[in-house]
Amino acid sequence: MTTLVVHPATGPLVGSVPVPSDKSIGHRALLLGALCDGDTHITGFSHGEDNVSTANALRAMGVAIEEPGPGELVVHGVGLAGLKGPAGDLDCGNSGTTMRLLCGVLAAARFRATLVGDETLSRRPMMRVAGPLRLRGAVIDGRRHATRADEIVAPLVVGPLPEGRDLGPLEYVSPVSSAQVKSAVLLSGLLAHGATRFREPTVSRDHTERMLEALGCPIRTVGPLVELDPTGWDHRMPGFTIAIPGDLSAAAFLVVAAQLVEGSRVTARGVGVNPTRTGLLEIARDMGAGLTVEPQGERSGEPVAELHAWSAPMRAVIIGGETVPRAIDEIPIACALAARAHGTTRIRDAGELRHKESDRIATMATVLRAFGVKCEEKPDGLDVEGREGALQAADVDSRGDHRIAMTAAVLALVGRGPSRVRDAGCIATSYPKFVATLRGLGARVDVEA
Ligand code: S3P
Questions:
Q1: Cα separation, 263 vs 403, whole angstroms
Q2: Within 13 Å, how many C-alpha atoms sit on residue 200's CB side?
Q3: What is the value of pTM for the model shown?
Q4: CA 100 to CA 218: how far, in whole Å?
Q5: Ligand 1 pocket check: which of 53, 186, 328 to mutate, most ligand atoms within 8 Å of Cβ?
Q6: Dihedral of CA 347/259/394/48: which sign?
Q7: Which of 109, 132, 202, 242 is the most exposed place for a label (fewest CB within 10 A)?
Q8: CA–CA distance, 389 with 257 (Å, rounded to integer)
Q9: What is the 8-class DSSP label of residue 408?
């Protein structure tokens, strides 16, 4: 298992760097490209393991995906009903998005598909997608959860939808703001009879809606309500061209590293700044962080910007409400900001973090304490007491969670001595060049196999 040995920074982090392509947009470009009638050309693709899981699952269902050059993919679409039954299990690896969005894509399939995942993914709740999809007639089941009778986990078996039966209309009010649930429901709606209406408490990332709209699908969004009514639609989507923006969720680690290491000046280029994703930037600004966002227009229907970050004194804030779904993957790294801010930062309304690649509330509390940062775990968040001076050098385990591993590596930059981040191979699920990028900015990181 890979261990990172991260040394305390001896000087500022300095540089201007690109970041890997947006993982969420990558999944959607691949899935929708596969469902188009025609070829889809993707550029700027970073080959994070999660996105590769989606590509491989599609290949296993008869979709040809070529790689004509670095970061380029051509997806030969098979049409909305053109996927073929796979010969074996569809391996979603560590990727919850792959598994949940595939449930929506496969809800109307006339074949059976078994979706499997690694140990972490096989613990994550799947009833949140199976529930609404069953309501419209989908055949979907999984393994019973160890302790919760009303929950299922992977392996999931989806389909076949019996001949002569179609998916029906669906009006669904989701108890959680979740782009994965929303996207699975919308994707199932493409082949359903009747309309799909999905409402969530506050708006989660809207990449699926943007892409469907660009492809001419009959979709309409009003705040946290999305409607898709395919009545009268020809059920054809043309192939498209997409340049995937940089992933804000990856850039966040660099932005925060620049705050922590005194004197740093870091620029992250070509970063997607869709407003449904920018919660962390708002939190950082509220804390007084050194940060400017320089807009650079749009890339394939998504706003992009250059982020300029530098270290500045920070104060504690309260994080909660509608900001949380817009910063859901950045709450661990926001804890690193909180660890250096003056006062106690309170994070609430973030119970969803318990269902991510690890229980991120519990895991972050363990990591923070290992670095000597005082914190208190709450059912839906945590309180983090900021501290000055060097942190304790730590020896922490990522629990197989890429965002925890990267957060720990960033905290280690202000440690009193070298820190160890164990089980760090998972970083490759979203940011294969993370260590190389940190080194390029001036950090000293050793990798032990
Ligand atoms: C994602 C949605 C989020 C996020 C995940 C990616 C997506 O999950 O945590 O990393 O691409 O739709 P939820 O929508 O379940 O919160």
A1: 25
A2: 23
A3: 0.98
A4: 22
A5: 328
A6: positive
A7: 202
A8: 15
A9: H
Q: Report the nearest atom of ligand 1 relative to the CA of 208.
A: 12
Supply the DSSP symbol for 7: P
Closest-lying ligand 1 atom to the alpha carbon of residue 329: 9
Beta strands in 316-411 (DSSP E): 318-319, 344-347, 375-378, 381-385, 395-397
Lining ligand 1 with CB less than 6 A are 24, 27, 97, 178-180, 183, 204-205, 328-329, 352
Closest CA to ligand 1's atom 13 = 178
Q: 208 near 29, Cβ under 8 Å? A: no
**How many whole angstroms from 100 Cα to the centroid of ligand 1?**
10
Q: Which atom of ligand 1 is nearest to the CA of 352?
A: 16
Question: Letter for the amino acid at 47?
Answer: H
Each residue's pLDDT, cut to its tens digit, for the chain (449 residues) gives 999 999 999 999 999 999 999 999 999 999 999 999 999 999 999 999 999 999 999 999 999 999 999 999 999 999 999 999 999 999 999 999 999 999 999 999 999 999 999 999 999 999 999 999 999 999 999 999 989 999 999 999 999 999 999 999 999 999 999 999 999 999 999 999 999 999 999 999 999 999 999 999 999 999 999 999 999 999 999 999 999 999 999 999 999 999 999 999 999 999 999 999 999 999 999 999 999 999 999 999 999 999 999 999 999 999 999 999 999 999 999 999 999 999 999 999 999 999 999 999 999 999 999 999 999 999 999 999 999 999 999 999 999 999 999 999 999 999 999 999 999 999 999 999 999 999 999 999 999 98
Those residues with Cβ within 8 angstroms of residue 389's Cβ, 6 or more apart along the chain or in another chain: none
Q: How far is it, in rounded angstroms, from Cα 225 to Cα 146?
A: 34
d(CA 421, CA 438): 15
Rounded to an integer, what distance in angstroms lies between the CA atom of residue 374 and that of residue 119?
30
Cα separation, 137 vs 130, whole angstroms: 10
In the reported structure, the alpha carbon of residue 254 is separated from the centroid of ligand 1 by a whole-number distance in angstroms of 21
Residues catalogued as catalytic? 329
